[in-house]
Design goal:
Blueprint (H helix, E strand, L loop, with lengths): L3 E6 L3 H12 L4 E7 L2 H10 L4 E5 L7 H10 L5 E6 L4 H9 L4 E4 L4 H12 L4 E2 L1 H15 L10 H11 L4 H8 L3 H15 L4 H11 L1 H5 L6
Parallel strand pairs: 1-2, 1-3, 3-4, 4-5, 5-6
Helix pairs in contact: 2-3, 4-6, 7-8, 7-9, 8-9, 9-10
């Protein structure tokens, strides 16, 4: 199998080069290029085949969002993982709405980064637990008090919230006083309702398309 080809875009040369050495030492990953600016990244993408772009949000005098938005206007097929020290709820939401496949926080471990890259290269989404919480908060702040009908049962809603909180099936089962097999059954119901096959796809669909009716907290829930 061919290695996953990476483009690192970060204005801090020490971090960028250290990250490049780390990823190049991983057998199924290969760093195709390293860039410090949007212009350099676009030039590299014009001549290189890249699978995943590791993009810092803060590029010094410019924002990584500029590159993300330009990629959306072009035919670049590479997926973008925003690598950042932190984002506000609204910025996290804007990043995902602009086409990023995930948000990775720099305080997380190298092993988690490698997992995130592989997951995104496979067509899924990566959201750090804190980034996910920020994304949900950003959505909720936009929709305010929504009066649309809730399409989930109370049990489905509770399990979904556990997933959005980053809990494993066993933790959700303990929190909701359910058996783990019951939790798995409800998750399969959620998969069918969302038309997805994986947990990360469910998270993305829930946030991007069903915030108003799936994620709005109601007293009766």
């Amino acid at each position: 199998m061919d290695p996953i080809r990476l483009l690192i875009v970060d204005d801090h040369s020490l971090f960028r080069e250290s990250l490049g050495r780390l990823l190049d030492a991983t057998p199924d990953l290969r760093v195709a290029a390293q860039c410090a600016t949007t212009a350099e990244a676009l030039e590299a993408l014009s001549r290189l085949d890249v699978d995943v772009i590791l993009l810092d949000y803060d590029l010094g005098t410019e924002a990584g969002m500029n590159l993300l938005q330009q990629l959306g206007q072009n035919t670049v097929t590479a997926k973008v993982l925003m690598v950042t020290a932190g984002l506000s709820d609204e910025l996290a939401l804007s990043v995902m709405e602009s086409g990023a496949a995930g948000i990775f926080l720099k305080h997380s471990s190298p092993a988690q980064l490698i997992t995130a890259i592989r997951q995104i290269a496979a067509g899924e989404t990566w959201l750090d637990k804190l980034a996910l919480q920020g994304l949900v908060s950003g959505r909720r702040s936009r929709i305010g008090a929504c009066a649309s009908a809730h399409p989930l049962t109370p049990k489905q809603s509770a399990v979904l919230r556990g997933i959005l909180d980053g809990l494993a099936n066993k933790e959700i089962a303990w929190k909701l006083d359910m058996s783990e097999s019951s939790v798995k059954s409800v998750i399969q119901e959620l998969f069918r309702k969302a038309g997805v096959r994986t947990r990360s796809q469910l998270v993305r669909i829930a946030i991007e398309k069903h915030t108003a009716d799936w994620l709005t907290t109601r007293p009766e829930d």
